[in-house]
Write a structure and sequence with these properties.
CATH class: Mainly Alpha
Number of strands: 0
Shape: globular
Largest sheet: none
Low-confidence stretches: none
Strand content: under 5%
Bound molecules: adenosine-5'-diphosphate, nickel (II) ion
Number of domains: 1
Mean pLDDT: 95
Structural class: mainly alpha
CATH topology: Hypothetical protein af1432
Distance between the termini: 67 Å
Oligomer: single chain
Length: about 200
């Protein structure tokens, strides 16, 4: 297999599929996750090519993003076969992707799955994660902040602050720690700004 050609084709396919995605799962999310997966793979002595490919493809077939998920998964696997991936490689990529999602509560069984999940989780935290949480919230009509109903700030506590403790790899943990600290700082400032004139604004 010509790996450079395969990567180029997969990037084009991902660009076409996700370029207009509005909820924080656009093609740039996929390429950021792929870069981190590749970086972590090198550090962890795993195959950077397979990790990059899996990360590029990790949201293909996600039920919240695709009206026909099975069809999307079928097309994804067909592309891989056409590009020369072996049946075993296609199966391990598919299995890793099945276990990535936080909301489905799955635990990866392979190092490939763990690295893909770590890279995806990094993109949900830190400055980029904050931007994505508010963007996602906007697409489901979730308010930024309300005292008496679920808001985007709740999401920090329900998910984002938990991710640091759920990382699998050492290099993922190190980066997650920095991003976690930044989110703590951000929320402190958010609440300061929210509260500082509250007593005079009613
Ligand atoms: P999952 O792991 O559940 O598949 P994704 O990796 O697709 O999630 O990420 C969805 C993105 O949207 C993440 O950045 C996540 O923090 C954000 N998100 C998900 N649910 C909410 C929510 N209720 N409010 C704000 N942001 C959310
Ligand atoms: Ni993702």
């Amino acid at each position: 297999m010509d790996r450079r050609h395969a990567l180029e084709q997969i990037k084009n396919y991902i660009h076409d599929l996700f370029k207009d995605e509005p909820s924080g799962h656009d093609d740039v999310h996929m390429t950021r996750v792929a870069s981190w997966a590749k970086y972590i793979a090198v550090k962890e002595d795993e195959d950077p090519f397979l990790c990059e490919v899996t990360a590029l493809l990790h949201d293909v077939g996600d039920r919240k993003l695709f009206s026909e998920p099975e069809q999307a998964v079928h097309e994804r696997d067909k592309l891989l076969v056409d590009l020369g991936f072996t049946e075993e490689e296609v199966d391990s990529i598919a299995e890793a992707i099945r276990t990535v999602s936080f909301s489905k509560g799955m635990v990866p069984k392979s190092r490939l799955g763990e690295i893909t999940q770590d890279a995806d989780r990094l993109d949900a935290i830190g400055a980029i994660g904050i931007a994505r949480a508010f963007t996602y919230g906007g697409t489901i009509n979730q308010p930024i902040y309300k005292k008496d109903r679920k808001d985007a700030i709740d999401h920090f506590h329900e998910k984002l602050f938990k991710l640091k403790g759920l990382m699998h790899t050492e290099s993922g943990k190190q980066e997650a720690e920095k991003r976690h600290q930044f989110m703590l700082q951000y929320l402190e400032e958010f609440h300061r700004e929210q509260a500082c004139r509250e007593e005079t604004s009613h």
